[in-house]
Each structure stands twice: as structure tokens, then as C-alpha cells.
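TA notes. Do not distribute before section.
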Amino acid sequence: MKEEKRIKIYADENINIAIVEGLKRRGVESWSALEKGKRGLSDEEQLSYALKERVTIFTHDDDFLSMAMDSGIEHYGIIYVHQQHLSIGECIRRLKAIVETTSSEEMHNRIMFL
């Protein structure tokens, strides 16, 4: 897959920063809400930012799922994992695999579960 078509990961404020740092160390373009000064924004504002930046949101917050499914709001992908479901290392491994095998176009308006 061409580099410019790769997914970029945007971690909402509830995601452990260690996941973002681990992704960066493995060559995945990623950043957190904290890094971008987006803490405290509403879920709608987070989705709007992610759409503008064409990034996939990684979250523990199931409100994003409800918003995307109920309202049909456009997004560049939502990847959801339950907060207690996977270790930090497993999240990093699975996210890296998704980035390496799924294009940004394939993630458009798609929801994935880790």
C-alpha cells in the first residue's frame, strides 16, 4: 500500500498515551487529543476535527459508535476497543496491523472493533 494512503490514528483523550507513543515508535503516524490541544472537546467536535484532518479515531468511548451509527455522520473511521479488553502492547500490535492492511479510503465511514 502506498504510504500516502495509510490510515493516521487520532487517539481521543481517554486513550493511554503509551499506545500513541508505541505506534509512533513503530512508524505509524499517530497523535493524541492531548498533543493537539483537543482535550475537553465534545465527541461531536472530536469527530469534526478527525474528519477535517482525515484521520481515524481510536477510542474507548462507545458514544462515538452511537453517534456514527445513529446519525450517519461522516467520518474517516472509528476503531473501538473496550478499556479493559486488551493490553497496551496488544492494542499497538493490532492497530499497526490495521494501518498496514487497510487504506484510508477503506476506513471512510467504517467502524472497527479491536
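Switch to the second chain here.
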Amino acid sequence: MTSNRLKLNAEKTQFIWLGSSYYTVSVSCLPLSVGGSTVFADDTVRNLGMTFDAQLTTRNHIDNLVHSCFFQLRQLHSVRRSLTHEALHTLVQAFIASCIDY
């Protein structure tokens, strides 16, 4: 990595053991040494905007997405009196389409 001028950021680097719950329980959670840095296994990891767990379910990703969408909808609630009904309707539809598309 150093020959390509790359540096590992141990605070942002994550790894996960993938497999069924039967096999992942039997795997020891020893840290992994990469390029002089020590990286610890996590229960969930994030890659390209998607959150994965050891069984490759999307449960955690959906929970995070719903949490952030409800936050944004609560923000829209505070400005709804300043908008016409049609403008608010268009804004909510655009927001939902962008969340689904993302």
C-alpha cells in the first residue's frame, strides 16, 4: 500500500465475518493486522452507502434509512405553513422519490 502512496485509516476501516449465524458464532473475533494497522471486526459494516450485517440482511440498512427519512419529514413539518398545499405535496413526493431512488 505504501508503494502506491496509500494509507489505511484504522478508524474508518471495517471488516466483518460473513456466514450463517451457526458459523459466525464459532469464529473468534481476533483483530486483523493490515499494513501495520489493527482493525477489529464489526457487527455491521457500510460499503457504498449500504449497511451489511453478517448474514447479509438489509435490516440495519432499512432501519437507518427509515430513521433518516422520518427526521427529514419532521423538518418538512416545520415549514408546511409557509407553503401552499400543492407545493408541499410536490415537495413530499420529490423527497420520497429521492429516498427510494437513493
